[in-house]
Amino acid sequence: MEGKTQEAAAAKAGMSVRSARKWQNGPLPSQAKSEHWWRTRPDPFDGVWEDETPPLLRNDPTGKLKATTIIDWLADQHPGRFSASQLRTLQRRLQDWRALHGPDREVYFPQEHPLGREAQFDFTHCGELRVTVAGQPHTHLLFQLILSHSGWRYAEVVASETFLALQQGLQAALWTLGGVPEVVRSDNTSAATHELRNSRGRALNDNYAALLDHYGLRSTRINPGQSHENGVAEHAHYRLKDAIDQALMLRGSRDFDTVDDYADFVRQMVERRNRLVEGKLEQEMACLRSLPPAPVPEYANYQSNPRCAGGAPSR
C-alpha cells in the first residue's frame, strides 16, 4: 500500500510480513495457482467406457438412447459396480461423446421479425389440459394468432380446425388488435389450403384467399413437416398452454360450468400474457396498417339436395 511500511501493509491486509514480501516481489496468488488437471476421485467408468459404451452409442444414430438405460445395462454386465449415483457422470460423458462423434445436427438460425410485418397463426389440440365442462371431457382446440415481433397474441377456444373457425379467429384477432400486418404465416392447414393433384403442392382455398384480399394480407406458408418454420406460433402454443395448466392447478379444479366460463378463463390468461409485451406492442402498432371499414360476414355455405323418402325431389 502506497505510503505505508511493509509491516503496516501486511497488518492491514491480514497477512504475515513474509507473505507480503513474497507477493510484492513475485507473482500474484491468482497467477501462481497451477491448473487443476488431475482427478480427485477414481473414475467409476475406468476400463468400461472406452470398450463397452461406444458400440452402444454408434448403434444409436438418433441419439435416443438414455443414460438411465445404459447405466442399467452396465449394472447387469458388472454386478455390484454401478448404481444411480454415477448417473450424472454418465450423462456428461454421453453429452461429450455425442458432441464429438454423434451425427451432425441441423442448425436453425434465429429469424428476424421487423416491426409490423408478420403475424403467425395456428391451431393446437388441448387434450393434455384435461378440461371438463359440467363434469364431461371437453375436447377442443385453441386458435392462436401472434405478432412475430412484439409477441402480442389473440387466442380463442374452438371445436375443430375449419375455415369458419379460422375466419372467426383471424378477424377477431385483427379487430381486437386494431391493425393489420403485412403478412400472415401458417402451416398448410386444410382450413386454408388444398392439395394440387398435378404438382402435389398446395394452394390457397378460394374463401381464404378472399379473406386475405379483404384485409390486404399476403400469405406465407411453411414447408410440409417443418414446424420450426412456424416457430413463433409453436412456441406461443407451448407458453400459453403451460400458463393455462399452471393456472388450473392454482384454481384447484379443471371443471367449468359452461364452455363460455372456460373461454373467459382462457381470455384472462391471454390478457395476462399480453401485459408483458405492452411496450413492444406500442412500438409495433405504429407500423400496422389500418383495418377495412367492416369485417367479412361470418357464415358457412351448405349445399343440399333434399329428397323425399321415395327418392323424388321434394317440392
CATH homologous superfamily annotation of the largest domain: Ribonuclease H-like superfamily/Ribonuclease H
Name the shape in a single word: extended
* Strand order in space, largest sheet: 5-4-1-6-9
Task: Classify the secondary structure makeup into a structural class.
Answer: alpha/beta
What's the number of domains?
Answer: 3
CATH architecture of the largest domain: 2-Layer Sandwich
Number of separate strands: 10
Question: Can you tell me the CATH topology of the largest domain?
Answer: Nucleotidyltransferase, domain 5
Q: With helices defined by DSSP (H or I, 4 residues minimum), what is the helix count?
A: 11
Uncertain residue segments: 306-315
Percentage beta strand = 5-15%
Describe it for me?
The termini are far apart. The chain has a 5-stranded mixed beta sheet. Strands 3-2-10 form a 3-stranded mixed beta sheet. A two-stranded antiparallel ribbon has the order 7-8. It is extended and about 90 Å long. It has 3 domains: 1-26; 49-101, no CATH class; 118-285, Nucleotidyltransferase, domain 5 (2-Layer Sandwich). It is an alpha/beta fold and 315 residues long. It has 11 helices and 10 strands. Residues 1-39 are annotated as: Disordered. One of its GO terms (biological process) is DNA integration. Residues 110-303 form the Integrase catalytic domain.
